[in-house]
Amino acid sequence: MNIINKKSWHIDEKEVTPKEIFEKRRTFLKLGAASLVCSSSIVEALAKEQLPIKTLKYIEDKNPQNLKLNSYEQITSYNNFYEFTTSKEGVKPLAHTLNTNSWDIVIDGLVEKEMILRFDEFIKKVDLEERIYRFRCVEGWSMVVPWIGFKLSDLIKYVKPLSSAKYIYFETLFDDEMFPDQARKYFSAISYPYVEGLRMDEAMNDLTILAVGLYGSSLPKQNGAPLRLIVPWKYGFKSIKSIAKISFVDKEPLNSWQKENPKEYGFYANVNPNVDHPRWSQKKERVLGSFFKQNTLMFNGYEKEVAHLYKDMDLTKYI
Ligand SMILES: Nc1nc2c(c(=O)[nH]1)N[C@H]1C(S)=C(S)[C@@H](COP(=O)(O)O)O[C@H]1N2
Ligand SMILES: [Mo]
C-alpha cells in the first residue's frame, strides 16, 4: 500500500495564517478580487499612503508638465457638493447616502434617438485615460488632480446629436432621500437639480472629459460618483457632479450659478486672472495644502488648447 505522508516541512495554511485572514481569504475566493481590500495589512498600508487600490484600467498620463499632484486625502476631504452641505469638510462624512448602484443617464433632446445609458454597461464601451489637470474653483482655491475618465466627445459621437444641437446640458441626480440639502426644499442652499451647460465646440474639445475615477480608482461619492464633468480651463462649478441627464439643445442653457446670481456668474466661466469676480480678485489662487498663493493662469494654463474657441469674444463681457 502506498501511503502518501505529508512531508515534515509541509505546513497547513491554517496553521500559519491568523484565523481572521484565513476566513477573509476564503471570502475573497468566493467574492473575487474586490474583497482583497479586506486584508487588514493592505488597508493599513493604504491608509498610510492615503491612496486607494487601483481598480481601473486606463492609459497613464505621463505628466509632461510635471504638475505636483495634490494628495488623495486633500482631493477627497475638501469638496463643494451643495446637495449634501455647503461645508467643504462636511461633504465627505455625509456622502455615503448617495447610492450609485444601477445608475442611469437619460439622453434626450436633439439626438437621433433618445435613450437611457446604463452607467455600468456604457463604461465598458469607452477607453479610459488618466488626465492630470489643474482644477481652479471660482472661490480662489485650486488643486492638481489625476482624474480617470473618457472624452465627452466619445459619448457625444455615440449618442449622435442632430446638427441643430448647439449646446449640451447636464443635470445632477435629483433624489431627496440621497441628498439632504435637496430634502430641505424651500430652505435648500440653491435650487435643484444642479444644472450646467457647454457650447458644442467646448464639449467636443479634447480636454473635456467625463471623469469616473481619480488616483486609479473609481470616483469617491464626495467627488461626484459615478460620473462627473471635468472642463479644466473653466471654474470648478462648471464641472457638474453625479450626472443623471444629458440633453442636446439649440439655445444656451442657464447653469445653476447663473440662475442663483446672474450678476456674478455667467455661462462661460473661463478661468481668467484679468477679470475679477465682483467681490474678489481672480489674479491669484491658493493650492490646497500650500501657504502661499500662486498666480492664476489664463484659461487655467490651457490657453494653447482652448483660446481659439473664444477668439472673437469679449471675455470681460462673456464671463
Ligand atoms: N452637483 C454639483 N456639482 C458640483 C457642485 C455642487 O455643489 N453640486 N459644486 C461645483 C463646484 S463649485 C466645484 S469647485 C467642484 C468641486 O469638485 P470637488 O469637490 O471634486 O473638488 O464641483 C462642482 N460641481
Ligand atoms: Mo467652486
UniProtKB/TrEMBL annotation:
Cofactor(s) named in the record: Mo-molybdopterin
SUPFAM superfamilies: Oxidoreductase molybdopterin-binding domain (SSF56524)
GO annotation (BP), single: protein repair
Class of the enzyme per the UniProt entry, highest EC level: oxidoreductase
Gene3D superfamilies, per database record: Oxidoreductase, molybdopterin-binding domain
Domain (Oxidoreductase molybdopterin-binding): residue spans on this chain: 98-257
A Gene Ontology molecular function term of the record: metal ion binding
Pfam families: Oxidored_molyb
Record key words, sorted: Metal-binding, Molybdenum, Oxidoreductase, Signal
Residues annotated to bind Mo-molybdopterin: 79, 82-83, 137, 172, 223, 228, 239-241
EC number(s) reported in the record: 1.8.5.-
Recorded catalytic activity of this chain's protein: L-methionyl-[protein] + a quinone + H2O = L-methionyl-(S)-S-oxide-[protein] + a quinol; L-methionyl-[protein] + a quinone + H2O = L-methionyl-(R)-S-oxide-[protein] + a quinol
Classification via PANTHER family: PROTEIN-METHIONINE-SULFOXIDE REDUCTASE (PTHR43032), PROTEIN-METHIONINE-SULFOXIDE REDUCTASE CATALYTIC SUBUNIT MSRP (PTHR43032:SF3)
Job description of the protein: Part of the MsrPQ system that repairs oxidized cell envelope proteins containing methionine sulfoxide residues (Met-O), using respiratory chain electrons. Thus protects these proteins from oxidative-stress damage caused by reactive species of oxygen and chlorine. MsrPQ is essential for the maintenance of envelope integrity under bleach stress, rescuing a wide series of structurally unrelated cell envelope proteins from methionine oxidation. The catalytic subunit MsrP is non-stereospecific, being able to reduce both (R-) and (S-) diastereoisomers of methionine sulfoxide.
Family assignment from sequence similarity: Belongs to the MsrP family.
Subunit structure: Heterodimer of a catalytic subunit (MsrP) and a heme-binding subunit (MsrQ).
Protein's name according to its UniProt entry: Protein-methionine-sulfoxide reductase catalytic subunit MsrP
Gene: msrP
